[in-house]
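Morning!

This is the sequence you dropped in the shared folder:
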Amino acid sequence: METSENRRHKREEIIKVMGCTIYQQSNPIEFDCVSTNISQSGIGLLTTTALKKEQDIELINDIFPYPRTATVRWSKEYNGLYYTYGLEFIEQLRVTPQ
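The structure's back. Tokens below.
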């Protein structure tokens, strides 16, 4: 796996099952995915569902206060069994200090 880091924000490892939705011809297609890491500007995902580069995906999980939309920026296929994706949030995650 390539280790080149061109990210604007540091990613934190987080393993969480998420609900994912893509739209094909206005029809929602729902599936599960697992987050692998997250930052203010993006998230890493693992899933058995094939996605296309530049495809938008809606993410639903208790780590977000509301559903988030992200765009696929890169992908890697593993023998057609599962895929890893790097996604960029369409709207950056706002982190408020506690």
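Headline: The CA atoms of residues 70 and 89 lie 4 Å apart.

More detail when I'm at my desk.
O.
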